[in-house]
Amino acid sequence: MSEQKNDFELIERFLKGDESAFNLLVKRHQEKIYMLARRMLGNHLDADEVVQEVLMVIYKKLNTFKFESSFSTWLYKITMTRSLNFIKRRTLKNTFSIFELRKNKSDESDPLDMIEGKEQFDIIEKLLKKLPPKQREIFILKNFEEMKYDEISEITGKSVGALKANYFHSINKLKELLVKYEKK
Amino acid sequence: MKKNNKIIDFFEGNMNEFEREEFLNQIKDNSILEKEFEDYKKLYELLNRSNSLKPNKNYLDTIVTKFRTKTKKTSLNLKPVFALGIFLIFISFSLLTYYNIFHKGENEVNESDIFYELSYLETGSSDGITLYFETGFLDELLLSKLDEEENNYNPLKNYLHFESDYSFISENLAKDIYNELLTKKIL
Question: What is the arithmetic mean of pLDDT over B48-54?
């Protein structure tokens, strides 16, 4: 609750013209935004692009934020929408192989490299990529963000029943994919 | 599928202590279920290990800086373009206004202007008259005057040089005078 209060204070400060309040707000949530985007998109470069898009949206639309829901929920919603849009754009781009060159040209290093547990993360990243984006979204919010179904429902707009079915389905699918991966 | 859902419930913490114990006992008696349970266990262990992963601090520190540089660039790119647009609109508006003020009625010619210009022609200056030749207005004026003369022909008028005097004589009287002059062979 105090976290939410701090967020609200920073938002109010920013809306009154204090730019530094926006920086503080971003610093509080940047890790969450990045990890959400990273898990949704499966690589650093795309996740980094989406993080910047999300910040731009927040910067421009913060005046439309209603202080009724938590800032985190609002943030999750924006990040997930941006990630899903990015996946759509990427699918279109990938039909033209020329756009794939962008990834190879970049020399930006992965911020998750050299961190313990990276191998496990890579396996999960590979498996998650095989889930349909909408199902991936539900799985990430439930499993990694440890959100309740009604909170996820607020973000995705799906009923709790549909979310439960989707979550169980994605767990079963991931288990199958992991078995296949280990056999390889 | 129901058994799988039970395994998921077990790992998701949706079972109470009694349900958990009962489920674990079921697994011991069922090798297929036990195998399934082990596969799910691996998945949950993997998820738990990757869950605690965090990006390095160096990257996180660049996020805001990168965003601020981007917004600065955007605002710098937009401002000159906007200013240039406003400037061009202002210049266009000024030129149009200037043109309208100083060239208003340039091609509109009236009779008094013609006579004014003709007076210049008589005195030797004919700069302005060329305009009336170009517009064809003089031709039109001449033709209309000729038509008028033809329609209102009065032979006496040719011999009376003072129009002010002529205006006092009625048309019938003028004709009589003219006939009388003819019979007396003055003309």
Answer: 85
